[in-house]
């Protein structure tokens, strides 16, 4: 039957022809669609709709990428929750009803212009304003959209020319573009951080609060990287209650602030239902919102098909360098090759051979490099095109563009950048640069956890060079550090279990699925490397540590509260096995520390006992009880408490109520001291609030300040004396090293009577003036009960007050575990030279060696022999050396590295940093300086430099009497070169020399038996136990 095959062919052809007709009728014939995708049927599948994220009722021709992207990216393993899908559909209806040019929108615009709010209106808006580069824009738009979703608002985008034709419209039958005839369009461009009508500034100036009845119809929100404390109150539930009633919010943002929305209790339940998988927030919202326009999509698909489609594996490498000086291209190239080799992403090549003709037999890999410069592409392309790989793989390298510099205001540049982000998201494997929002967007759209190239700093390649991201989420680079409920600063990465610090920026926060865990070994090693790599400062503000302890002292004596609370064990848990279990007396330092802190908020508080030897000096039971009393007082009177607010009103008015009974210690924390210490008192803060009425005056307060206590006494001002009835509400006390005779009258009982009745004392100090308090009869009995052991005042108060922040504690423990923990003995040598001319390097080096040999701390070496290989048989000693310069470390290290010791001991020498000069106004360096002080305090033996407050703090925290290197003067090494400290206490360098009773000058080291001159400064005084 010859006609049968023809019939069969006809039967097959007819249905195919029928389908073609349907497709062409529905779509028209589009060559891009015709050449496109098999799944591109009349109804998008669940995959094409990204598991329900996308609405099916948007015309495909208007946005080809919306339903085609699934063919270029692998299907996501992460499905959106049904609740998120339903909320998106609800939002789309709201946007359609309230969006631009609708009746509701026009009505709302009229209300906006008139300033009248119609409470019956169901339409409220968030207007997003652009700021910074494309990655930042996409992440901040996503954050703004989630906020709109949570608060039932409509998101509108102020699309400037540099963003035109970049994205498809995300919502069906409506636009998210702010119309050009928006009434306040001209004002949008002038809106910045200092804009008077911003929410933050209005809060700061008390123009708006929760009780304000007549609210504005429009409010500006500044949520960019340089926002201030009051701007950040946006993340507090109380302030959100104000915003809820304002129809128009105009938001300028350039950060991924979305993680902080998870800190707000008002959003907590809703967010849990929307995102049960916390690591997928941007993955879902980013793929829902951001679809390349047809113009950009054509760039993407053309490039993909031409260069990448045929490869068996595709690797994306995204390179972003923030500082070419500290991250030279050669270093970055070495880092990339080391990472891709170590993680087996790319093969090595045989540099001794050349490729004659491509074999084409091995597995094919395509490498897509994105960078502003062509260097990395050219280097890698030449390597793989000229030399064969060791495993036979064939590697082709591509780079779509190299713009040389970022041009965020150039539309064509932004379109290319958007194309490259999407191409990266289509790769099988991703390698991204630390801190880069460009990389964050690519990994989020692709749904792939990348390998992160850790940041190179000071031309030092980090070790390890890279690591796998543990969460897919982007990092919030500038999170708030404020607990809205407790009204105090806090590490927001410790409040809820699924918010932790980022892998690439230790101060940033991001969303994770798992609860809080200790940093991985990789992260510890990274931070250790940072500690070595960065030059560490030696901040003179350490004197502030000492001053703070003794100011707290005055607090004890001027005001006493007799209430006593019982200790409460709240069942703290900790992830480190060394400190797990109950808080024993050792962990509470003999009762010094209160047990009612959450351990995660300050790991060092209860962990330090595992690194320092237990103290032989127990605090008195009276001191312990007084500390608990003080904590209750501070909680009742501290910042944001009712008593504090009342006292502030009295201060401003100048009226003093005799019933006021608050005297607590508050610290004026400038930026250089931020995140250095934990809060020392439970359930409150010791930080002076930024809205303190006279904040602006504090920086101007100096020795010659006319209104200081000393100058007021000097000028015989009748406004202040023992008999004065109307005293001021506050007074300035100048107690720094250059203070005058009248300032020193602070240490006289008669003048303390005046101060006792003044509510606010503002003290500027840089000295350890505590010993002089022991000269005052009014404090004598109390001090005897508090400190029967006179030599341990700072030892107890220092360990009570000063606990390194989690950030600093990670530096400390990481360095200790990597370099110091395995030694049988640890020796700390702290070197501080005040005058290089009178104390030349070689003489100081000779002094150190003479002292350590004489005291048998370190062994001598056989200079006539060289070490061929370490024996490893003798006792091991680790020497931790801290100094501003590397010369002492290099000399000592070379000596023990090259020559054998006479007694067979094995000596390893370490120096975490060498800063060359002091930079005490730099916060990062102050954090690292505190890390070094704590490391010194963990040593078995200490050698310190005379007159150094840095050494005083280390010996006090450790509870060890150091060997003091006496000061070299006039180029002469002293004899003896060093001596053991007789007392553990720090030295008061600038004591008063006035007898308040006799009203004459006197040597104050002769008045009471437990005050004598210091071992290292003959005019200083310090506390001793015996005469």
UniProtKB/TrEMBL annotation:
Transmembrane segments: 6-24, 538-559
GO annotation, cellular component aspect: Golgi apparatus; membrane
Main location (coarse class): Golgi
Keywords: Cell wall biogenesis/degradation, Glycoprotein, Glycosyltransferase, Golgi apparatus, Membrane, Transferase, Transmembrane, Transmembrane helix
Superkingdom, natural source: Eukaryota
InterPro entries with a match to the protein in the record: XG_FTase (IPR004938)
Subcellular location(s) per record: Golgi apparatus
GO biological process, one term: xyloglucan biosynthetic process
GO molecular function: galactoside 2-alpha-L-fucosyltransferase activity
Similarity comment: family membership: Belongs to the glycosyltransferase 37 family.
Protein name: Fucosyltransferase
Source organism of the structure: Citrus unshiu
């Amino acid at each position: 039957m010859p006609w049968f095959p023809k019939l069969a062919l006809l039967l097959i052809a007819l249905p195919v022809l029928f389908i073609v007709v349907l497709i062409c009728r529905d779509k028209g014939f589009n060559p891009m669609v015709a050449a496109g995708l098999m799944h591109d049927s009349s109804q998008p599948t669940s995959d094409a709709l990204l598991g329900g994220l996308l609405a099916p009722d948007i015309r495909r021709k208007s946005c080809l990428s919306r339903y085609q992207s699934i063919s270029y990216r692998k299907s996501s393993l992460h499905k959106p929750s049904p609740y998120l899908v339903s909320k998106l559909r609800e939002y789309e209806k709201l946007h359609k009803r309230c969006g631009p040019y609708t009746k509701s929108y026009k009505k709302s615009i009229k209300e906006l212009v008139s300033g009248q709010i119609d409470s019956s209106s169901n339409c409220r808006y968030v207007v997003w304003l652009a700021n910074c580069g494309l990655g930042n824009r996409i992440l901040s738009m996503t954050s703004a959209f989630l906020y709109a979703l949570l608060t039932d608002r409509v998101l509108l985008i102020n699309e400037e020319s540099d963003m035109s034709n970049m994205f498809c419209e995300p919502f069906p039958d409506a636009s998210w573009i702010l119309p050009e005839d928006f009434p306040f369009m001209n004002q949008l461009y002038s809106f910045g951080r200092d804009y008077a009508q911003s929410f933050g500034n209005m809060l700061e100036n008390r123009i708006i609060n929760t009780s304000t009845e007549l609210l504005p119809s429009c409010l500006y929100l500044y949520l960019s990287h340089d926002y201030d404390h009051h701007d950040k109150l946006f993340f507090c539930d109380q302030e959100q209650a104000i915003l809820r009633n304002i129809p128009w919010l105009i938001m300028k943002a350039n950060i991924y602030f979305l993680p902080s929305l998870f800190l707000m209790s008002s959003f907590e339940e809703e967010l849990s239902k929307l995102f049960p998988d916390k690591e997928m927030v941007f993955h879902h919202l980013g793929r829902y919102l951001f679809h390349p326009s047809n113009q950009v999509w054509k760039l993407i698909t053309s490039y993909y098909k031409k260069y990448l489609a045929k490869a068996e594996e595709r690797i994306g490498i995204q390179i972003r360098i923030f500082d070419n000086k500290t991250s030279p291209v050669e270093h970055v190239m070495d880092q990339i090759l080391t990472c891709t080799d170590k993680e087996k992403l790319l093969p090595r090549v045989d540099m001794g051979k050349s490729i004659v003709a491509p074999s084409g037999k091995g597995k094919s890999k395509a490498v897509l490099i994105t960078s502003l410069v062509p260097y990395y592409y050219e280097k890698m392309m030449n390597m793989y095109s000229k030399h064969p790989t060791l495993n036979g793989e064939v590697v082709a390298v591509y780079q779509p563009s190299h713009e040389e510099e970022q041009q965020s205001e150039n539309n064509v540049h932004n379109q290319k950048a958007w194309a490259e982000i999407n191409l990266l998201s289509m790769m099988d494997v991703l390698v991204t640069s630390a801190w880069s929002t460009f990389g964050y967007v690519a990994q989020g759209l692709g749904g792939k956890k990348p390998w992160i190239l850790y940041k190179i700093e000071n031309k030092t390649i980090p070790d390890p060079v890279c690591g796998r991201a543990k969460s897919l989420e982007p990092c919030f680079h500038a999170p708030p550090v404020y607990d809205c409920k407790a009204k105090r600063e806090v590490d927001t990465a410790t409040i809820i279990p699924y918010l932790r610090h980022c892998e690439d920026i230790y101060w940033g926060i991001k969303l994770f699925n798992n609860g809080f865990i200790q940093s991985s070994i990789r992260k510890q090693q990274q931070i250790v490397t940072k500690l070595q790599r960065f030059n560490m400062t030696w901040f003179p503000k350490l004197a502030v540590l000492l001053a703070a302890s003794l100011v707290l002292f005055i607090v004890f004596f001027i005001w006493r509260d007799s209430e006593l609370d019982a200790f409460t064990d709240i069942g703290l848990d900790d992830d480190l096995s060394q400190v797990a279990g109950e808080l024993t007396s050792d962990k509470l330092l003999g009762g010094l520390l209160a047990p009612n802190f959450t351990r995660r908020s300050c790991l060092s508080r209860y962990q330090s006992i595992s690194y320092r030897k237990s103290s032989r000096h127990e605090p008195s039971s009276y001191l312990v009880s007084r500390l608990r009393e003080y904590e209750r007082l501070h909680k009742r009177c501290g910042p944001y408490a009712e008593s504090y607010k009342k006292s502030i009103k009295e201060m401003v008015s100048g009226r003093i109520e005799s019933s006021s009974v608050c005297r607590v210690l508050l610290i004026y924390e400038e930026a250089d001291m931020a995140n250095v210490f934990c809060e020392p008192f439970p359930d409150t803060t010791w930080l002076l609030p930024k809205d303190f009425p006279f904040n602006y005056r504090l920086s101007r307060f100096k020795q010659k300040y006319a209104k200081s206590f000393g100058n007021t006494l000097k000028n015989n001002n009748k406004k202040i004396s023992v008999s004065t009835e109307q005293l001021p509400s506050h007074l300035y006390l100048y107690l720094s090293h250059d203070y005058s005779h009248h300032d020193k009258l602070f240490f006289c009982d008669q003048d303390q009577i005046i101060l006792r009745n003044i509510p606010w004392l503002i003290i500027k100090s840089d000295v350890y003036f505590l010993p002089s308090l022991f000269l005052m009869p009014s404090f004598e009995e109390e001090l005897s009960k508090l400190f029967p052991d006179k030599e341990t005042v700072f030892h107890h108060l220092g360990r009570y007050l000063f606990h390194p922040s989690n950030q600093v504690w990670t530096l400390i423990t990481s360095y200790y575990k990597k370099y110091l923990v395995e030694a049988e003995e640890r020796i700390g040598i702290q070197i501080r030279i005040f005058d290089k001319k009178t104390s030349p390097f070689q003489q100081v080096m000779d002094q150190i060696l003479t002292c350590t040999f004489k005291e048998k701390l370190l062994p001598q070496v056989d200079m006539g022999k060289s070490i061929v290989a370490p024996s490893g048989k003798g006792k091991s000693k680790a020497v931790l050396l801290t100094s501003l310069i590397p010369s002492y470390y290099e000399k000592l290290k070379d000596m023990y590295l090259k020559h054998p010791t006479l007694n067979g001991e094995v000596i390893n020498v370490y120096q975490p940093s060498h800063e060359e000069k002091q930079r005490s106004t730099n916060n990062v360096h102050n954090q690292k300086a505190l890390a070094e002080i704590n490391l010194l305090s963990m040593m078995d033996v200490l050698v310190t430099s005379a007159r150094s407050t840095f050494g005083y703090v280390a010996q006090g925290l450790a509870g060890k009497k150091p060997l003091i290197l006496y000061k070299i003067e006039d180029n002469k090494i002293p004899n003896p070169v060093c001596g053991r400290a007789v007392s553990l206490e720090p030295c008061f360098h600038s004591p008063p020399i006035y007898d308040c009773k006799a009203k004459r000058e006197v040597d104050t080291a002769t008045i009471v038996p437990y005050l004598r001159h210091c071992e290292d400064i003959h005019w200083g005084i310090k506390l001793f136990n015996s005469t």
